Amino acid sequence: MWIFTKYGFYSAVCARQGGGEHGQPVDTDRIMVRGRVRGHLEALLAKFPAQLEGCEIKTFTGTDYAYRFFVQKPDWSDVLAALGDDLDYDNFKSAVARHQGHNHYEHALHDVWSVMYGVQERG
After folding, report:
1. Is the pTM here over 0.70, yes or no?
2. Residue 96, burial from CB neighbour count under 10 angstroms (0-12, 13-18, 19+)
């Protein structure tokens, strides 16, 4: 699941059992939240301290998502619900620019918008 918020971009998948190494079975009770920008994960932890208490950002060098934390699925579900409750804008990209300023993330969102518009047009 990809999640784009005004706090950042996240990829959430089921964690693997144990330390999350490749080859381990999937743990459907635990979520691995991944980010490409450490600050995005830090912002999420700061925004939802009760739901993400005890989560520690770990660095995974040489991977497609350099930063990750692990959380129990019910707590992650609470974060997703809270993100929905947190909506306070009528234009997402503009909200990101107001919240974070014009940065690489905000510019990347325009690229994502354009690519997905192309999907719509091609049906």
Report:
1. yes
2. buried
